[in-house]
Automatic annotation (TrEMBL):
Signal recorded as keyword: yes
Signal peptide: 1-19
Keyword Signal assigned: yes
Protein name: DUF2155 domain-containing protein
Length: 151
């Protein structure tokens, strides 16, 4: 009797502990820089300006992705979770929380990247992909739907 009671208590405590260690879905945790803040309000939509490189064709493309939205670049789906800039008194910096998933035809989707990318140091946390490179250029208030530019 005591053994079964002890096992029941142990099982309950393990279940509670495992429930507490699983993180709840939430906003991305901000980097540890107190100077970072969202882009100041103004006309337009808070967006990340990104640049994609297709290594096969050597073409670059700049595009704007609103915070909380996704866009496609080749087979990649890029979602911007947040986009922050430094306060005016600090050195310029833009940082965006990106989630990048590869949707290759005929294959299961593969999450390639999830984390903060810094505009000033793109190699610090870069997308590692054989065909595509993606980097953050800035965080801005985009005006409507800006056309993509290809070079």
């Amino acid at each position: 009797m005591r053994l079964s009671l002890a096992l029941a208590l142990l099982a309950t405590s393990i279940g509670v502990a495992s429930a507490q260690t699983q993180p709840a879905p939430q906003q991305p945790q901000r980097p540890g820089n107190a100077n970072l803040r969202p882009v100041p309000d103004g006309p337009g939509i808070r967006s990340a300006e990104l640049q994609g490189l297709d290594k096969v064709t050597a073409r670059t493309q700049r595009f704007y992705v609103p915070v909380g939205k996704s866009t496609r670049f080749g087979t990649l789906e890029i979602t911007v979770g947040d986009c922050l800039v430094n306060v005016p008194e600090a050195p310029p910096e833009s940082v965006a929380y990106l989630t990048i998933v590869d949707h290759k035809p005929g294959q299961a989707e593969e999450k390639l990247f999830s984390g903060w990318m810094f505009a000033s140091t793109p190699s610090l946390s870069a997308l590692d992909h054989g065909v595509y490179d993606v980097r953050v250029l800035s965080c801005t208030m985009a005006q409507g739907s800006a056309p993509s530019s290809s070079r």
